[in-house]
Amino acid sequence: MMSLAYVFVAFIYLAIAASFLATTGVLAYEFADAGWVDLLAIDSHLFVFFPTFGIVALLAFYLPSVAFVDHYWRNVKWGHLRFWGGIAVVCAISFGGAQYLLASDNRPVWDIKPSVLKADRGTPAGCFAGGGETCLRAPILSAVANLRTLSQQRIGLSEFVRTCQSDRLIEPQPFDTRKKYCVATTPLSPAPNLVSDSTCCRAQGALVDTIQSLYETPANRSLTGKVHALLLPAKIFFFLILLSISLLLLWRFDEISKHYARRLTHIEFGLIIGTIATLFFPLMSQAFLLSLSVLAGDAGQGTFSYMVPRMSIAFGIWTFLIIVYFFRSQGENTELLTKVGSAAAGFIALVKYDEIVAVMVRLIGSGTSWLFLAALAALALLAALLTMRQMAKGDQSPIGAKRISDDPPFGTAPIVKAPVAGAIRAEGRSDIDA
Known about the structure:
Layout: H1 3-30, H2 36-42, H3 44-47, H4 50-60, H5 62-74, H6 79-102, H7 114-119, H8 140-153, H9 197-215, H10 223-251, H11 253-259, H12 264-278, H13 280-296, H14 303-327, H15 332-351, H16 353-364, H17 370-392, H18 421-427
């Protein structure tokens, strides 16, 4: 591959990685004395995934991305025009998607300055001071702390989710008469006051309204929220680029096999590792959705909340396609086992969906601990090291770099042979090395 393709992709991916680190770093700095770990855990899909597995995915997709760029610049008709046109479309969708998400009326807690959040005393003011009193609305940071403590004490929060809004097409049912603990009203203690669904729903609605009211004053908005809004397009760009590159590489698999045979194994390895790494995003997003439902109920559901189920299905389909295409060249038996295993995994995930989400909340969501966060970081580091080790193995010459022996005589066209897929892997090189 041309050195220019290496430099171009490295520059883009380093900028994206820096944006991942920046958002989490600003949160840790700004909310250092206002429960930043609680906020990080609840929104782990933003503040944990991107600085860990997001960077792993970038590293894993680096070589496939270089192959993609080089192939379009050198081997595809009108490749430069189609490449830059595609980049322009992806950028436009990224910025448009970011504005769409940011237009949601429901704001996250970390959109408000820490000083403003710490000044909030709940309704009525100071109701938490007694330690066990039930509030009409708990202080915002206290409600967040309640949620995190509850998540760490239990595996499964679905029983604390209240359905506060009725469907206009279905006859409304009375609220559940059983009283339950509500993070938005009561301090969590060994024997907390339990409240009805209607009381908790009112408190959750008041909590969401208070956050929205505070956000409407520009002076109350946090630096973290501003940085997130500024860098959100980079996160959307990241997913769109990874999706586009992986699907286009699969579409042009035969061409990639022919032109970049000497590093084909490395490219495929990167696709697999990168795709698996991105699966943590929908898992963390599902955990966030359940935690948000316990904290804010129906009133807290925003644009992203409605996207999560559809997004999870899309990620599952994408992963299935990548795995099947990867193993199709490993033999019929291996391919069959892969398809059966993928189908079985999908079936188990569908049947045991609630249990899986409950575990995700405890391990990588609002209930996570420093131990689990350290384990996630270690797993991400291991994946990164394996990726770099794989990239360093085998033929060290840049893919696509012309060798004197490969060049046809001046003024003549190269002779193109139709390589056999198995021969390409066995020989580790292609008939065309351009």
